[in-house]
Structures are given as C-alpha cells and as structure tokens.
DNA sequence: AGGCAAGAGTTGTATATACAAGTTGCGATC
DNA sequence: GATCGCAACTTGTATATACAACTCTTGCCT
C-alpha cells in the first residue's frame, strides 16, 4: 500500500536505474532516517553514489517530487516534503484549513485520549487481528463558539513506526497524524448520516440534522495505521474539494 | 481556469522551449482539432517542427502525460487522453462506476431534457450574466429497481465549444459531459442535506433521510460550462474516494 | 561591525547520441 | 489467400556535456 518506486509490473525485468534510486530514497524516508524537511542527496552526490549520469539521478528526484514526496528548490537542494505540501489529503484537510484561512475563530478541544477496546466496525476498518492496542482520541472543533465538527481517531499502535513510537506517550495521535512520513497513503469514504445521540449532544444539533461523515484510513506498508472519522452537521459545514488538473 | 502549459510566474521571462510545445499541443486539443484518442505528433515530428532536441520534445509530451492530458504507448505513439482515463473526476464518477463494476443491475432513466430558466442558485454557480441559454436534464439512476441517485445537469450552451455545439441537438448534455475535452477542469462541493419534497418523491425516500449532495462545476477557459448536482440517499449509497499517492 | 562580492554548490534547461523495447504494417513466402 | 518475419517507426532508458539561474556561505573591504 505504500508508494512503490517502481513502475514495472510483476515481471522479473531488471529494474531501471532510476527506480533503484527512487527506492533507495523512499526507504530512507520510510525508516525515519530522513525526516520531513531533511535534505536528500543532491543530483551530483547520487550520480557518484550510484555511478549513473546526472540525468538519471535527476529523474529519480524529479519523479518523487511530482509524487509530492520531495520538494526541490533551485540553488538550495532537494528536501523531504512536509505533510502540508501534499495535496492528496486535501479534501479532508480543507475542512480545518478553510476555517483558519477565513479568519474565523477556530478552536479545538481535546476530549479523550486513551487506549480503548474498539467496536466491530472499527476493528474491520483497522483490519485488526490479534487484539492490537488501539489508541483513541476525540477532538471537537469550534468556529465562533459553535461546535462544527467532531474528529474521532483510532490509531493502531503496533503499526506506528518505531522512531515515532518512542515518544508516543508525549505526542497525541493528532500530532502523530500530522507528522506522519510523506509516504503514507490514505483512502476516504464519504457518507451522509444522521448522527448518533451521543454525537448530536457533543455537536449540539437536533437528531434530524443530516451530517457529513468522512472516514479516512491511513495506510503504511504494513496495513491500516489509523482511522479518522470526521462528523460535521450539514447546516454548519460543507466539504469543498477542488480538484484541478 | 484551463490548464496552463507554463509553470512560470507572471514575470516576462522567455518561456522555456518545452512549455511552448506544451502550449501548442494544448491549443490543438482545446480547439477540438485533436479530439480524444487522436494521435499527437511523435517526438521526432516535434523535434523537426520546433527545431529542438528529442529530449526537449519528449519533456513536453511527458509532462502532459503526467497531467493526464495525453496517453503514451511504447511503439504506438502518443494520444489525447480519454475522459475515462482521467483520475481527477474520480470521486463523482465512482458513484456510477462502482455500481456497474459490481455487476449490479444499473439502469438510468432520462426524465427531462429541455432549455429552462434557472434559479438564482444555479445562475450564481454557472456565473451567468446575460441570460445565456441553459440546457437542463435529469437522470435517475437505479440499482436493482431502487432509485439510488438523481443527477441534475445544467449546461451553459454558450460555453460549449463550437465543434461540439454543431451536433448538440442530437447529443444529450450527459453525453456532452462524458465527451468533453481532456483540458476541462472541475471543482466539487460535497454536502449533507435533507432532500426537497420533489427529490424525495423521485428517489422514493422519507423526508428525514440524509442525502449526500455533490455539486460539480465544470470549467473551460471561458468560465463555468456546466453544473451537475448529484443527490444520493445516505442509506442507499456511499461515495468512496480513494486517493492514493 | 556591516555590507558587498566572489565562489562553490545546486537545480533548471537544452543538446546530441546510443541502444533497448514495443507496435504496426508491408511484403515475401508458403 | 493466409501467415510469418522483417523493417520502419515510436517510446523508454541512459550517458555526457554545456550553460543558465538561483542559494548560501565565506571572506574581503570599507
């Protein structure tokens, strides 16, 4: 499920040189060795290290840049992209981004942060097998004192990379999810629902208010790392996804 | 609003050669001269035509391919992409694609097809100014005899490219929207609503059923060409958007 | 000490070339 | 007439090179 640096099919073709370099870079990012904003080897360094021409090294860097994994700056160098600079999670992030961009007062209140026993639905979404430890948190977002969105996060601790797990006790899942390595994938599912009584109470809405519910599953190579469920009442928020090409 | 072949800012820098070639290709696609699946000039032809090296011509084709505008096939050539091969409109298309892909019975019923006077909301969405002619159609989608989605399309006839308008009397707006040139952009807005009485009747649902409503605006260089409103009852359908990177 | 200039390092654009690999159509052969 | 194989064409990979444009540091000069 993680980015595959190679474009080739399952044939045992000798992989192209530039895909080997892409793989090399991806591995170092995935392991946490090269965190966000870290400088990756320059074209000339890769040229020497892999004994290829500059154009071949360049192609590896170029393609990873187009995939949003790297960021290049003429004269400065090539760097690991920040979560923020990736457009693929745009749709969901827009919810909170638009709020803050509009100059509206945006507050978030952390409600829960604990290890829990999950429901069947979450177990399926997280693809749990052996009672792995799941961390749960709730974040309630406000705009001008109105509760506009409830964010429920379920994190499969066993799949959080080691280098992040070491200080997991002091960072919240929310922080983890915004500091996740750029190689993470996500799938989204959007649904219109009537919120449960409990959620209605937290968002202070009538039980008949239609709500937009987005389920985002974040994947690493090992499987589903986390599930985030965002619930927003329809009369208070719209999810705008601007897909341009 | 249309694809801009150049990456440069507003500075009056001399544009790079490969952007000139990209522009050239985009213009021919936009004008309708090169329709979908049409063969575009090969790398060698562009090399001669623009007096550049093959690598420069290649770069233009390559980048347009990455933008989903062209499709390349080793040995065969480079072709204008089909609407289908563009992933940017994925989210909405999934609604109907998933239905047919699952092997379920999927029927669509054309309800209306006429020129209308639009409401204020649609006029704003279409950015109408001088009482332009708007074409309207309703399509009701069925799955196993259940109405699962209402599709309302508003097309600003004055912005439909000439080469399509000539036979517009015999193609429906639905057909137009699936044969639109690959350079079209779209923006989406997703909302959870309670459907109007009229829509409830057509979809055969209770007035309290939450519905997913997607408004898709299709842009050309001249402005908003069409607005499509898809309404799906929440208990009958989910919109899954799988955004991978 | 502050500012400017030079230079090293990095990415961006462009060329010329070579061979590999896949597609297509034409022609020779059976 | 049908089929096979080759030739022409096209895209894919890779190299070597050159210069332009931009960033950042270092060191010199005022």
What does this structure look like?
- Two copies of one chain form a homodimer.
- With 245 residues, chain A is an alpha+beta fold.
- Chain A folds into two domains: 17-81, Orthogonal Bundle (Arc Repressor Mutant, subunit A), CATH 1.10.10.10; 85-233, Chorismate lyase (3-Layer(aba) Sandwich), CATH 3.40.1410.10.
- The first copy, chain A, has eight helices and ten strands.
- In chain A, the strands form two sheets. The first copy, chain A, has a six-stranded antiparallel sheet with strand order 4-5-6-9-8-7.
- The longest helix of chain A is centred in the first third of the chain and has 14 residues, at 17-30.
- Chain A starts with 16 loop residues before the first helix and ends with a strand.
- The relative contact order of chain A is 0.14.
- The A-B interface holds A 3, 66-68, 86, 88-89, 91, 185-194, 208, 210-213, 232-234, 238-245 and B 3, 66-68, 86, 88-89, 91, 185-194, 208, 210-213, 232-234, 238-245.
- The structure holds a DNA duplex (30 and 30 nucleotides).
Question: Which secondary structure elements does this structure contain, and how are they paired or packed?
Answer:
The structure is a homodimer of 245-residue chains.
Chain A: H1 17-30, E1 39-40, H2 43-50, H3 54-66, E2 70-73, E3 77-80, H4 90-101, E4 106-116, H5 120-126, E5 134-143, E6 146-156, H6 162-165, H7 173-178, E7 185-194, H8 197-203, E8 210-220, E9 223-233, E10 239-241
Antiparallel strand pairs in A: 1-3, 2-3, 4-5, 5-6, 6-9, 7-8, 8-9
The structure holds a DNA duplex (30 and 30 nucleotides).
